[in-house]
Amino acid sequence: MNGHCFLQGLVCLLFSVLSRAQGSKQLRLVDGGGPCAGRVEIRDQGSWGTICDYRWDLNDARVVCRQLGCEEALDATVSSSFGAGSGPIWLDNVRCTGKESHVWNCPSRGWGKHYCDHSQDAGVICSGFVRLAGGDGPCSGRVEVRSGKAWTPVSDGNFTLPTAQVICAELGCGKAVSILGHVPFRESDGRVWAEEFRCEGEEPKLRVCPRVPCPGGTCHHSGAAQVVCSAYSEVRLMTNGSSQCEGWVEMNISGQWRALCASHWSLANANVVCRQLGCGVAISTPNRAEGSDRLWKARFHCSGAESFLWQCPVTALGAPDCSHGNTASVICSGNQTQVLPQCNDSMSEPAGSVASEESAPYCSDSRQLRLVDGGGPCAGRVEILEQGSWGTICDDGWDLDDARVVCRQLGCGEALNATGSAHFGAGSGPIWMDDLNCAGNESHVWRCPSRGWGRHDCRHKEDAGVICSEFLALRMVSEDQQCAGWLEVFYNGTWGSVCRSPMDEVTMSIICRQLDCGDSGSLNTFVGLREGSRPRWVDLIQCQKTDTSLWQCPSDPWKYSSCSPKEEAYISCAARRQLRLVDGGGSCAGRVEILVQGSWGTICDDGWDLDDARVVCRQLGCGEALDATVSSSFGAGSGPIWLDNVRCTGKESHVWNCPSQGLAKYYCDHKEDAGVICSGFVRLTGGDGPCSGQVEVHSGEAWTPVSDGNFRLPTAQVICTELGCGKAVSVVGHASFRESDDRVWTEEFRCEGEEPELRVCPRVPCPGGTCHNSGAAQVVCSVYTDIRLMKSGTSRCEGWVEMNISGQWRALCASHWSLANANVVCRQLGCGVAISTPNGAEGSDRLWKARFHCSGAESFLWQCPVTALGVPDCSHGNTASVICSGNQTQVLPQCNDSVSEPAGSAASEESAPYCSDSRQLRLVDGGGPCAGRVEILDQGSWGTICDDGWDLDDARVVCRQLGCGEALNATGSAHFGAGSGPIWMDDLNCSGNESHVWRCPSRGWGRHDCRHKEDAGVICSEFLALRMVSEDQQCAGWLEVFYNGTWGSVCRSPMDDVTVSIICSQLGCGDSGTLNSSVGLREGSRPRWVDLIQCRKTDTSLWQCPSDPWKYSSCSPKEEAYISCAGRRPKSCPAAAPCTDREKLRLRGGDSACSGRVEVWHGGSWGTVCDDSWSLAEAEVVCQQLGCGPALEAVHAAAFGPGSGSIWLDEVRCGGRESSLWDCAAEPWGQSDCKHEEDAGVRCSGARSTLPLTTAGTKPASNPLPGIFSLPGVLCLILGALLFLVLVMLVTQLLRWRAERRALSSYEDALAEAVYEELDDFVTRKEGLLGSPGFLSDDSVDKLPYYTRDGEEYNDYRFAPDQRTDGPAENYDDAEEVPVPGAPPASQGREEKVPSENEDGVTSSQKASSLNFSREVTDPGEGRESPWLLQGKKGDPGYDDVELSVLGTSPVTFP
Fold first, then answer.
1. Predicted pLDDT at 42
2. What is the pLDDT of residue 147?
3. What is the DSSP letter of 900?
4. 384, 391 in Cβ contact below 8 A?
5. Helix axes of 1271-1302 and 1306-1331: crossing angle, nearest 10 degrees
6. Whole-angstrom distance, CA of residue 514 vs CA of residue 494
7. Residue 220 three-state SS
8. Which helix (H) or strand (E) holds 979?
9. Tell me, what's the pLDDT at 767?
10. Angle between the N-to-C axes of helices 2-23 and 1271-1302, in degrees from 0 to 180, rounded to the nearest 10
11. Are 855 and 820 in contact (CB under 8 A)?
12. How many other β-carbons are positioned within 10 Å of the β-carbon of residue 866?
């Protein structure tokens, strides 16, 4: 049996390891040429699978790019654009918002559910973190990394080859072949990257390499780091499978070893190979070596002086396939002992000799040969390097035989022309040779007969040159354009056209760059058939990123007629063109205009859509495209119409790179000019709307937060003005950056306040590229910007209240004006406190009807909740007025506990003296400022009111004091949830006329006999709630508002986009929506509460939007509003609401249902718990909450595998007795400094038990059996007990023996005896448990000792009888605890130290905020009445009268 248990445990352990290995999903992009582009694949359950492209868009791509650390998404590709994948299709119909942390967290059809095949695999193209700029292409140049908006150069200080290897691999550019330093920074480089990268060379991306900040923020350097990457990364010589200094030549090309073709293989090439391998110099290049079958046909044109073969010019364009056996081979001197003769001037091959490269001995010669100023390596002026100087050849006697030697020596094919008279320009330096008389067969031109080395009678105007057959040239043919036309290539002495298939963007980019016509271009397919005939030299050109010219691009072989005439390529390059938006009120909106050939012209709107607009916005650095406008919506332009029928995919770098009708070819006029509206350079995000929140600017690739270092109010004013959000009322710093903020803007804005846009403000680069800050800058804009008190036209500390609203002074209405509002005004004006609010002031005729609901503690009136929806017009003379204490010399009395107004008094706010009181009133957890649990602030603590005697008269005082209208309901029994802190009042007996609730008669301040389950609440008539009513949708349906105690519909006129956006945002359904006017007439009758809602951008909720007054029938039934929002509301429960706390907690990645990584549901998604402070106490709560028995282990460091999504909880601190993890103290939700490598887990003793479902906030009513008491569990328990008994006996005997041998003290003897007795007592209790008649019954299970985090032991989860306090604890009722049968009396246990509890039952060691605020009531947005909005019903809010805890169970409820 013991072996069986051991095997059982071993199997469980192996299953746990396998489960952990397969539990976490992985993401990658494949077949895209790099890690940041390609087909999207997810690994799950050991298999890589794909995503179907149905509804695949840029929001989905953003999630993928961000998850992979690949910066901004450039394109979301469909239809298997990167090739069809294989294996499972994991996701379909993915609908990301763009903000999810993992793509599998996005809404979809469901895991593994799809209706597509691999021909519809989705792909992504991301921008990446690093680039190489200023080189011959994307695979060479200066190293730059993305920093905020700009690319920032990296210095060459401590820049190593492993770092370069990581960069080349990340960019899909092969391997690093060289690193260059000492390169001066450009004038535009205003800053340098302030870190050194310490890559090992095996990292997948540069951003994951270790980094070391440069001392003082400035890196030691001698210039910018430059890297050259190449697909050609290694060379070797092979003979019968072994690498030596002779054999056929193999090269590592894009990770694969390929043999090189012998065609055009020269001794100069061979010499470079031998030098590179440390094998001396090349002796010969024998042909017809067998070698490999995988022959690489590219041709190398070395001069012989290069250090590496890949430094030589390469041509692959038009190269024919290499026949089997025609493998390039080399014999190097390093494999022989012979000493090579030194080459000298007299060494020449006699005319008529047929010495060849294959057989001619190679002398030790440092001379080199090149052709210059001919546009390529195979044409130009002939130059020879000797004694460190490049010199020329005189053209006396220069002919084709001489030219043949030069062309063959350089591997450039046959000689086409031998030019003289400095055809390629006059050289400089020595003239090395004259009167050459080559036979044409010599291996080197300096071996030809001549006048003698360095002897001549010429000048440089007689310099000789050659044109070889392998010389290639490129041009565009057009009548009137330099960078657009028919593409032609010069080959074999003749110009011919190029075929356009397939010719992708990489190929066009290389062509345009080679022609000095910019970095991008487009293929024009709308041009007509070209006149005349010519060769069509080459087809199927397929350039790679590592190619630096068209000549290096593989293609079909040269052929006179490679394609039909209609397939000749016409290319338009984007040379020096400019783009702007005009007549749109700013630089990021307006009519699209392009500068071409010195003239500004427009784009025709045929086919103009959001993909086209995305390219324009990104090109201008104006953020995201919001709209693509047509029909000259920004007015008709003038001048040329440059483009028509533009069909961008959205990923192009320039709008003129998009397919179109052709430059200046159109079928429209200026009344069809296209326009664009972009999001702009700056935005406020994370606030209550578009006019408040964290300041972010668009870097061209992504939104980047701005730090609060030196962020000033004038800068905030510019931002608010640019966004149309009024004026800045506050600038907030010290706000933590979000978890997704992996970079911060590296400039400080120095606005004066008058600039029209933030982008034109002066900027100062932060020292070292890092801005000094204490967090992210946050700005609050408002239409409410100033306040004053007016009397007889002067502003003093008394008078009617006027507010500056959108630049105009407006008097406020006295309706619902409260003394709390007045107190805020007085404080804001520095006028003390409010004494009274007299009515009937004349004031202004321009009355603002919005109502403010201040608690009295706000610093500014605009910080108070505001309602304008449904508010009626204010009658003339009904102006809000205030008399502040700052205008009088009287000293206000201090409020004290005895201040109250006797029942029946009619004291009103207008006449009642105001004492100097810091008390405040609020309603919480009710969904708005006019409903919720009543709380009062006193002495720095928020406390509640007990519901003893609580009625509508008491509620009336609260509602009036808060300016919330009439009381509709006075709730009790913690209807809005139990509060915390003190209970300030009990047995209230208000008359209903008191000005403050604390002036009502009561038992006395702070005196009560209640607990928080009896907290009082109110629902006032001004309470408003919003919902959508639909049978099957969360974020679409009939819009309803709760007003005056009743749900009613909303009228749809006029309800513009701003209004719909605010509604959807308020309902948690995204930031946009549409009004559906095609739905049928709604059944039934109900109030139609409000019409003519007109929200503004500055409004943060529907309640702030002006409208017509409340009216029972504001419109006809056919005008009720039905809205469809673009987003999805975060679900309050994983399944359908309501749900239990148990359903919001789960374990994942373990070997059973009762072990694994702890995950909690919050904010609509599952997330993990950080292991900071994670101990057995927290594990105990989790295990008990899940019905999994006692905790065995608190697991750290993502032992069950790292989770995904948010890390919801950190620094969780439980006492161990809580019924739910939500009751434990912790950091606020989502605030963590952890990574998923620190995810917490648990191991519980039993299997998961099943409890009846109860709503969140209630306790289960059954006593489940611990999962450990299955038959195998019982057998293992018995065996374990016996083994433990034997072990105890052995240990005890050993201790006694050691005690006798060492003659320990009597104290140590007593301690050993105590250990023995305690263990013996435990074993006796075990035997009693196993032998009792009630074994396995609920009432016979003894409790295991409970250990606190400090090592203190408890034999029960309750206090021992002699340790109980006088008052009951917070979470217990008055009934006594039921004893557990079989458990020893508390007096037999050891005396234990128990944390003290305060009056409310809160353990004094728990200092962090409680998680209990996450408990949820039924969501009113689900289409049914919410219980807390109905009258009456003071039922049990979720607390039980008697609780019992036993081993492996949750508390049992006794009704």
1. 94
2. 66
3. -
4. yes
5. 160
6. 19
7. coil
8. none
9. 64
10. 110
11. yes
12. 21
CA atoms of 488 and 165, how far apart (whole Å): 37
Q: How is residue 389 written in tokens?
A: 């100087």
Rounded to an integer, what distance in angstroms lies between the CA atom of residue 1161 and that of residue 1142? Answer: 10
Q: For residue 1263, what are its two tokens? A: 């006593």
CB 517 within 8 A of CB 483: yes
d(C-alpha 1007, C-alpha 999), whole Å: 15
| CB distance 619 to 577 below 8 Å | no
Phi first, then psi: give them for residue 464, nearest 5 degrees.
-85, 155
- The span from the CA of 755 to the CA of 737, in Å, is 27
| Cβ neighbourhood burial of 541 (10 Å; 0-12, 13-18, 19+) | buried
How much is the pLDDT for 1448?
A: 35
Per-residue pLDDT reduced to its tens digit, 720-773:
888 877 788 778 776 677 655 567 887 788 888 887 778 777 777 676 566 777
Indicate yes or no: pTM above 0.70: no
Nearest-angstrom CA–CA distance, 719 and 685:
12
What does the chain come to in residues?
1455
Using CA atoms, how far residue 54 sits from 32, 51, 123, 400, 1035, in Å, is 20, 9, 12, 64, 21
**1429: Cβ contacts below 8 Å, ≥ 6 apart:** 1019, 1025, 1042, 1045, 1047, 1420
**Alpha-carbon distance 755 to 753, whole Å?**
6
| Per-residue tokens: 955 | 């509620």
% of the chain residues with pLDDT over 90:
15
CA triple 715-719-723, angle to 5 deg: 170
CA angle 1321-1325-1331, nearest 5°?
145
User: Residue 356 is which amino acid?
Assistant: S
The number of angstroms, rounded, from the C-alpha of 422 to the middle of its chain's C-alpha atoms is 61
According to the model, what pLDDT value does residue 33 have? 61
3-state secondary structure 1240-1256: CEEEECCCCCCCCCCCC
What 3-state DSSP class applies to 167?
helix
- What is the chain's Cα-based Rg? 41
Q: For residues 357 and 1014, what is the distance between their CA atoms, to the nearest angstrom?
A: 104
* Stretches in the chain below the pLDDT threshold 50: 1, 3-7, 9-23, 336-340, 342, 345-362, 364, 888-892, 897-914, 916, 1136-1138, 1249-1272, 1304-1455
Cα gap 101→935, rounded to integer Å: 38
DSSP output for 318-345 = TPPPPPTT-B-EEEEGGGS-PPPPBP-T
* Bridge partner residues of 808 (DSSP): 805
Residue type, 374: G
CA dist 182 and 106 (Å) reads: 48
Token pair, residue 79, equals 């239809």
User: How many alpha carbons lie under 13 Å from residue 1211 in its C-beta half-sphere?
Assistant: 14
Which tokens sit at 1323?
């074993």
- Please report, for residues 248, 330, 1010, the alpha-carbon distance to residue 322 in angstroms, rounded to integers and kept in the order given: 14, 18, 95
Predicted confidence at residue 1276, as pLDDT, reads: 64
pLDDT at 946: 95
The residues facing 1347 across adjacent strands are: 1353
Two structure tokens written together for 272: 């470079």
Q: pLDDT tens digit string along 1076-1109?
A: 887 888 888 899 999 999 888 778 788 888 888 8
Check residue 1048 and give its pLDDT.
92
What pLDDT, on the 0 to 100 scale, is given for residue 784?
78
> 1120 forms bridges with which residues in the sheet?
1051
- How far is Cα 1346 from Cα 1350, in angstroms, rounded to an integer? 11
Distance from C-alpha of 209 to C-alpha of 130, rounded to nearest angstrom = 12
Give the helix/strand (H/E) hosting 1006: none
Encoding tokens for residue 549?
Answer: 């010219």
Q: Is the peptide bond before 502 cis (omega within 30 degrees of 0)?
A: yes
β-strands 834-836, 521-523: how paired?
A: unpaired
Q: How far is CA 146 from the centre of its chain?
A: 15
Residue 690 token pair: 């578009």
